[in-house]
Amino acid sequence: MTEPVWLVVGLGNPGPSYAGNRHNIGYLVNDELASRVGGTFKSHKTGRADVVEGRLGGPGGVRVVLARPRCYMNETGGPVSALAKFYKVPVVRIVAVHDELDIPFDTLRVKVGGGDNGHNGLRSMRKSLDSGEFYRVRVGIGRPPGRMAPADFVLQDYSNVERKILPFQVDRAADAVESLLTEGLERTQNVFNS
């Protein structure tokens, strides 16, 4: 029997012009997880994502595929679905790491299932997977100031003040992913959904 594997998808937009955007927190968290498993992102044979395969939680830990889709946020579902088929990962073993407007900056929430809440990456995943019953590590970015459109806000870089805190937020979100895969949802929520 083959050992079960988790697919952890960091949501974001590819390319240097988006690298520091709030919308790219999923990429940043997966970069941290890749360093924890000692891997470097490489192009997957599907051609639509970069992946790292490894184990989280030390030697003998949980088998994981970390993925960064190589497409814009609203097309994320295709690459995720292709990777899930390739690695034979059921929806209940998929984790999406993404930005969340409805949670204050420097906080996060972990949950399973739910709607897309206007998030194009989640909408695309739900459509391609024909289910929303995957896990979400929702990393707070807060609401846009004044009358700024949410779409403009998520595509802006973090502020100077936020950038000082960001490494800690990324580290904590990576801890939450690791906890989810090794300790389960309830225990993770008790620790991280504060």
TrEMBL record:
GO terms for molecular function: peptidyl-tRNA hydrolase activity; tRNA binding. InterPro entries: Pept_tRNA_hydro, Pept_tRNA_hydro_CS. GO terms for biological process: protein quality control for misfolded or incompletely synthesized proteins; rescue of stalled ribosome. It catalyses: an N-acyl-L-alpha-aminoacyl-tRNA + H2O = an N-acyl-L-amino acid + a tRNA + H(+). TRNA binds at Y18, Y72, N74, N120. Monomer. This is Peptidyl-tRNA hydrolase.
